[in-house]
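Entry 14. Ran structure prediction on the chain below.
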Amino acid sequence: MTHNAAKDFQGFDTLALHAGTPPDPATGSRSMPVHFTTAYVFRDAAHGANLFALKEMGYSYSRLTNPTVNALEERIAALEGGIGATATASGHAAQLLVFAALTAPHDHIVASSRLYGGSVNQLRNVFPRCFGWQTTFVDPDDAQNFKRAITDKTKFIFLESMANPSGVVVDIEAVAKVAADAKIPLIVDNTLATPALCRPLQYGANIVTHSTTKFMSGHGHALGGVVVDGGTFNWAAQPDKYPNLGQANPSYNGTTFNDAFGNMALHVWLHAVGLRDLGMTQQPMNAFLTLQGLETLTLRMDRHCANALAVALHLEKHPKVAWVNYPALPSSRYAGLCQKYFGGKGGAVFTFGVKGGHEAGMKVVSSMKLFSHVANIGDTRSLITHPSSTTHSQLTDEQKISLGIGPEAIRVSIGIENIGDILADLDQALSKI
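Output, C-alpha cells:
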C-alpha cells in the first residue's frame, strides 16, 4: 500500500491522501495515473496461466482488476479498516455483488426497514423476482427485532449506519451481537456517515458497503460503489451455508476459496468470480476522480456536518416547519447513538416536514435558488429533493410514511457553501408557502 507515508503512518487524514497511491515506479509521477487499458501483457505463458488459475495475483483483464481501481480499493480498505475492498460501478452494484456471494435461490435476508428507497425496491421487488432472495424488513430501533426475524435460511443482516433519508441511527454493536450469535455476517452500508465519522467494522460489522458516488467522490461527478471485507467472519466454519466460499468452484478447477485464501476468501471471490461473471466493474476515470475526492473527505465532512447542524437548528424553530429529523439535534431520539457512533456529528443528509403537505413541499423545492434540485446527495453543493415524488416514488404511500418520508417531507444534502447563504435560500423558499 505504500510509499512509507501510508505504510508507516496510520492517521486517517494521512491514509486518505496516501493509501494505495505511491509514486509511479516507472515515471515517478506523484499523482495516480489513470490506466485506460482493457488488458495486460503477461511475462510469459506460465504467468498468464497462473493468473487465470489464481495461483498468482496480478492484472489480467480490467473487468477483474485495474491499477487505478485497485488504488481506490486499497485506500478505502485502509480507511474502513478492512483487509480488502472491491470497487463496483455503483452502490447498488456493490450490494448485488456481495449479496450474490452469500446467497442462493430462496435464501433469506433480514434488513432494516429504514433504508434508501432504491435499496428497499431492490430487496422487496427485484431480488425476489430475479434471484429468489426473500427479505424480512424489521424496525431497526430494537436489535431484538433482527433476532426474531432470523430463520435457518437467513444468510446475513443488512442495515445502514445512518439511514437515508430518515436520519435513523442503528445501534450497530447491538445488531452485530445478534448476527454473531446467529453465526451470520452483518453488512452495514456506511454511505451517509463515511469512515470519517464511523467505521462499522470496529463495532462488530463484518462487511461494509458504500455508494462512493456520494461523499467519497464528493463532487457529483463519478458513479461508484465498494464492498469492504473486514476479514472477520469464519466462512470455513459453515461451508454448506456459504457454498461459494466453502465448496469447490468448478470454474477454477475445483478451488475452494476458504481453503486457498483463508480470511481473504470473500475478497478474492468478489473479484475472481463476482466481477468476472456479473461485470459491474468500476471505471478507471471514476476511480481516479473518487481518489481525488477522498483526499479532502475529512475536511469536507467537518464542514458538511457543521453546516447541517446549523440548518437543522434553524429549521427546528421555523414557523413553516412541522418537524426535523436530524440525529445530532439535542431533541433527536438518536442523539445518544449519534454521539456513540459518529462523535456527535449528524452527517449532511436529513429530512424535514413543511406545514401544508405535498403541495407545500413541492413549492419549497421549486423555489430554491442556491440549492440544486437533484436526485443525488453527498455533493459539495447543497442539494434538495421531494422524496415522495422522486427518489422514493416507487414506494406505496404507506411505505413512504413508514420510512419517515410522507408527502410533506423534504430531503436536503447540505453542502459546504457559506452558512448564511444556505439559510437565506431556505428562508426565502419557505416564505413562498
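The domain at 4-293 is CATH 3.40.640.10 (Aspartate Aminotransferase; domain 2). Will compare against last week's run tomorrow.
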